[in-house]
Structure formats: structure tokens, C-alpha cells
Design goal:
358 residues; 31% helix; Dihydrodipicolinate Reductase, domain 2; disordered C terminus; single chain; 10 helices; six-stranded parallel sheet; Rossmann fold
Length: 358
């Protein structure tokens, strides 16, 4: 596809305007239509982007325009229905996380996209973050030694949801990063949580993901925090990396810090840990808005007819973990096993250009 790609965005509340802004700024994209039920939201966005059309009816949005691709940024409960309609209409489809409310819905959307021969992509935005990709590069090159565990904390005051708990709302960001860094699905999930504001909707959760080889990750998610926190720590046998997305410039910090146990000892009194405290340094990388990179990647996958880095199968992996977390909460934090899915054939995923300076 050599011409500009016609894009329509449905859902103009919290996140949709960011998608509209980024797609509109890309040279190979024609931001054609915005869809929302709210007259106020459409009126506001129309005042910002006068050349972009508006539509309140989703069916007319799909059928009455020459859209090549549809971007869905609505509440989670509407993802499956809207994505299915978009795919059936032959549109390349981008869905914000999570892809759907169940793994069965995800599998249906994946199969439908394959039958229709269109791109299905999920908005796991942080996979497109230069900081996260630099972090992955450091781990893969063995710069921190053997990866031992990852700890993540994502919290703030609100935004409270009524149809999903905080694990489904905030944890997908950290889960997607953890899966990207680990390069594998977890073997099991444990999750505990509590509802303090809306009965039955957990606003604080703690999730643990156990991986092959003894690695694990702990993810804390909260809508009840006095300050906004977006922090992740990757602990290796030699060094540690702290990723703080709230930092404006120094988002990554590497610490030459570790704990060594003595190789041998005869008595408990002789046993002493060795604490190593070395230098701290800030890895350099090119700063770029992750959402811009993600939007461009969607367009590139359409034009080049290749599979996105965060395709429908990645969305399915995420939902399987969230389902297991919900089951664990109902079982007071009991471990829920994740059976290995049947091996899928090798897929050619698109490569992202990533400029990093060691």
C-alpha cells in the first residue's frame, strides 16, 4: 500500500486523543474519522483537528467511510465486539490493551484476522519504549549477569474502573514488559487483592509470575496511592537496573551492586555475605515517544504485510495471565498453573529500528 493509510479512531475519552494526535502527525497516515458517543468529546476534538471527521454511530463509522484501519480505544468490555465488527468489515485493527475479556474471545479475533488477511495489533505501548528496549538489550547481552527476578510497582490515585479491577487495568503494562524481558510465558500465577472503594472490584493487587529456571516477577498495582509510581527493577547476578518511567530524562539507572555468598564455610559463625557496591551509571539511548513508535509500527505492518511485534497472540498471552490472576484472587492467592499453549508456527515479526549507545 503506497498511498497514505486512512485511519479511524473509536473511543475519544482518556487515551483515544493521544492516539489521534500521534496518527495525525505521521506523514504516511490520513487521520480521517473520530468516533465517540459523547458530543462534548467530539466537539472538543473537532476544535483541535478541524479536518478530521466525526461520527457517533459505530456502524456508520465502519460502513460509511473509506477506512483502511480502525483503532479501538474504548472500555475493555467493548473491545471484542468492536474488534470483531472491524475485522469482519475487512479493516486492519489496532486494539488497546487488553485485547478482550477472555482468551476464547482473543482466539476468535486472531483466527478472524487470519481469515480476513488483515493486521491485528494490540496496544502494549511500553514494548515500544526506547528505555525498555535498551533494558532488554542489556539483559540479553549479559551485562547484569543472570537475570534473577523483576519487581514492578505501578500505582496512583485513580482512575477507578467499574468493569475491571486494577490488575486488568494497570498490570498489563508491566506484564508486557516482563514477558518481553524474560522472553517466555510464566509457568504459574499467584495474585491477591482487595476492594476498598467499589465492592467486588479490587483496587490493590499483588501478582507473582513464576518462570522456568527459577526466575520470577512481582507486580504491584494500585489505584490507592498518594503519588504516581511507574518503577521496575531487574535484578541480575552481577548488576541491577532500575527503570523509572516518571523520570523525564534518566529513565534507566544501572547499579554495579550484588550480594555474594561465600563458596564454603565450616561453621555458621564463619558464614558471611559479601556485599558489593560499585558505580552507578545512566545508560544512554535516543528518547522517543513510545506511542509514536507504536503507531508508526502499525502503519508499517499494514504497508509491508508483516506481523506486529505485539500481535493478537501477544494479546492472548496477556489475557491468559490476567484470567489466571483473577482465578488466583478468587482462591485467596493460590497458584494457578498456565498450561503451555500448542506451539504455533514461526511468524515473521516486524523489526523496529532502535538506536542505542552503550
Amino acid at each position: 500500500m503506497s498511498r497514505a493509510i486512512n485511519i479511524g479512531v473509536v473511543g475519544c475519552g482518556y487515551w483515544g486523543p493521544n492516539l489521534i494526535r500521534n496518527f495525525r502527525a505521521l506523514p504516511d497516515c490520513n487521520m480521517k474519522l473520530m468516533c465517540d458517543l459523547s458530543d462534548d468529546r467530539l466537539s472538543h476534538l473537532k476544535s483541535l483537528y478541524r479536518e478530521v471527521g466525526v461520527e457517533k454511530d459505530f456502524k456508520r463509522f465502519l460502513q460509511g467511510t473509506e477506512l483502511d484501519a480502525v483503532v479501538i480505544s474504548t472500555p475493555v468490555g467493548q473491545h471484542y465486539k468492536m474488534a470483531k465488527a472491524s475485522l469482519l468489515a475487512g479493516k486492519h485493527t489496532f486494539v488497546e490493551k487488553p485485547l478482550a475479556r477472555s482468551s476464547a474471545e482473543c482466539e476468535e479475533l486472531i483466527a478472524l484476522a487470519e481469515r480476513q488477511g488483515v493486521v491485528l495489533m494490540v496496544g502494549h505501548t511500553f514494548i515500544y519504549s526506547p528505555a525498555v528496549r535498551r533494558m532488554k538489550e542489556m539483559i540479553d547481552k549479559g551485562m547484569i549477569g543472570k537475570l534473577q527476578y523483576i519487581s514492578a510497582n505501578r500505582s496512583n490515585l485513580g482512575l477507578f474502573q467499574k468493569d475491571i479491577n486494577v490488575a486488568w487495568d494497570l498490570a498489563p503494562h508491566d506484564i508486557s514488559i516482563v514477558l518481553y524481558l524474560m522472553g517466555q510465558m510464566p509457568l504459574s500465577v499467584n495474585c491477591v487483592g482487595n476492594a476498598h472503594v467499589t465492592p467486588g472490584v479490587q483496587d490493590v493487587t499483588n501478582m507473582a509470575l513464576s518462570f522456568k529456571g527459577g526466575c520470577f516477577a512481582v507486580i504491584q498495582s494500585s489505584w490507592l496511592s498518594p503519588r504516581k509510581v511507574r518503577e521496575m527493577t531487574a535484578v541480575g547476578s552481577k548488576k541491577m537496573i532500575v527503570y523509572d518511567d516518571m523520570e523525564p530524562t534518566e529513565k534507566l539507572k544501572a547499579y554495579d551492586t550484588r550480594v555474594d555468598a561465600p563458596p564454603h564455610y565450616d561453621t555458621f559463625a564463619e558464614f558471611q555475605y559479601s556485599y558489593h557496591h560499585g558505580d552507578r551509571y545512566v545508560p544512554h539511548f535516543k528518547q522517543e515517544e513510545p506511542l509514536k513508535v507504536e503507531c508508526q509500527h502499525f502503519l508499517d505492518c499494514i504497508k509491508q504485510e508483516i506481523t506486529p511485534l505485539t500481535d493478537g497472540r501477544k494479546g492472548l498471552e496477556m489475557v491468559r495471565i490476567l484470567e489466571a490472576a483473577s482465578a488466583s484472587i478468587q482462591q485467596q492467592g493460590a497458584s494457578v498453573s498456565l498450561e503451555r499453549p500448542q506451539e504455533a508456527p514461526a511468524i515473521r515479526h516486524a523489526e523496529l529500528e532502535f538506536a542505542a549507545v552503550a
